[in-house]
Structure formats: structure tokens, C-alpha cells
Amino acid sequence: MGLSNTQLIDIYRKMLTIRVFESEVKDLFAKGKIVGALHLSIGQEAVPVGVCTALRKGDYIVSNHRGHGHCIAMGVDVKHMMAELFGKEPGICKGKGGSMHLADFSVGILGASAIVGANMPLAVGAGLSIKLRKTDQVSVAFFGDGASNQGTFHESINLAAIWDLPVLFVCENNQYAESTPFLKVMRVQNVADRAVAYGVPGVTVDGMDVMAVYEATLKACERARSGKGPTLLECKTYRYMGHEEGDPWITYRSEEEVEQWKKKDSIQSFRRHLIEKKVLTDGKANVIEEEVKKLITGAIKFAEESPWPKPEEALKDVFVSSYY
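RESULT FIELD:
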């Protein structure tokens, strides 16, 4: 599927939106305006945008503790997302979810789990629902390389395989499970190599190349929609920050390593690509950057001025009183 110039520019804008959003959130956290654990996806922008661009309206995703990028890529309103991180009432989860438990059913985000690997069974459940309802939707689970060592990963991909469920397992391999290099805890060179044990395709792509991610996802989605079952897609990427804010990352990796990965920066390389293809000019790219900064500044203002949830609503929306 060829993408129009408008779609290509939208990809660039979304990646840039994630970068600016995360950078501003980092500063807000340092100032004490956002509290709780904060896991940033700076450096990994090409994966959520590449994957979600290949999805259709009505498809589902389940996210994890590092999910801000997934939400923005799926089209969540950044004002209400920022309000959620502030714990404010207009947040997408009414201020009760916070950074690691984001959900927005209106754009297909079924939720996020801070427990490593716990979101994959949810994606399989959504995939089973799709099959039983006989629709052509796809369910996507985002997870890290560390989660591929969890039992939930193996159980989920095995069940999706034997039932031919339309589930895409997307491993954002950012090289570290917290502070542990992934090659120290697995013998295979690629997480995707594990797919052979379940009889499904395992695909490894450059997670710093948004178009490579998009094309691989599109192919996996076509396979899923045609009833052929799941795919394990591994995107080799890198997080420039620590596992979470406050993580002394210099204790387990070098500044030289980080700088080497920054030379592959997905946003800058895609900007150069669009300019070379005459889809963008330097001037237009700069205008988009200013528009994105203004958008995030407005989101922060909205969050700061929004009201807190009322104390008497603490238990509202927490428990389901009926399944119907």
C-alpha cells in the first residue's frame, strides 16, 4: 500500500508529537508536577507510529508501562492524555489511571498493564472476540524484550497460534529489560526467532525505521485479517532515557552507546527522507515542529487548569456492577 504525501507527513508529525510530549513530561516530572513512576519512550517513536499507521479504525491495541507513544500514535487527544498524567478529572481515565494505566476505548486502546507481560493475554482475548464475531479486526500487544521471558508471552502466542487468532505480538526490543541487556538472558539473537516454536512467522525489523515497521505490520495485519493467525514482530529500537525517570542508566550502559544509537534517530532520518523525496521542505518541517510544540504547550495549560477528581468519586468507574 502506497502512502500519500499527507499520510507521510502525518507519520512525521506523530513521531514528533511523541518526542515533544515525552520531553515536556520529563521536565514536568522533574518539577514535581507529575508524580508516580514515569517510563518514557524517547528514541522509540518509530515503532508505535509505524505499527498504528498500518491499523484500521476498529482495530485494538493493548499497551504496557511505556505506553504514551502508543496512545499518541492511535490518536488520543493529547490534552486529555496530559490531564491524565496530572491526575485531573478530564483525563482519559478521569485522573485515576495515570501514566501506566492508560485506556481510551474510543480509539481502540483497551488498556495498559504495568505488570510486565500481563497485557498479552488481553490481546489474545480481544483476538478471540474478533474471531467469534467474525469481523476483520486485528488485536495488537506491545511489549518489551524482557516480557518475552515471561510465561504470559509463551502461553499467549501459543494459544493465538493454535486458534489462528488475529493477534499481532509487537516486541519493542530496546536492548534492555530495565538494566539487563537482553542477550544476557536469552540464547537466541532475536526475540522473533522464538516464533518457530509456535509455528507462526517471526519477523525482525529495524525499529528505528518507521517505514520498515509500517510495511512489516501491514503484511502481518493482512495475514491476520485473512484468517491465517498471529505474527511475532520484533522491532530493534532503543530508549535514550533510563528504564524510568530516576534510573541511573550510566551504571549499566555507556554514554558512547547512547550516542551511537542517537545517530540512528528515527525522527531526524525520516525528516531527511521526506525532504530528499520533496514531500517536505526544511521550512515546512520547521513549521510542523513549531505547531507540535504549541499543541503540547496547550495540553500542559489545559492539564494545569483542569479540576481534580472529586473525593466522593474515588470508587466510581472502578468496579463493574453488571456485565450487561
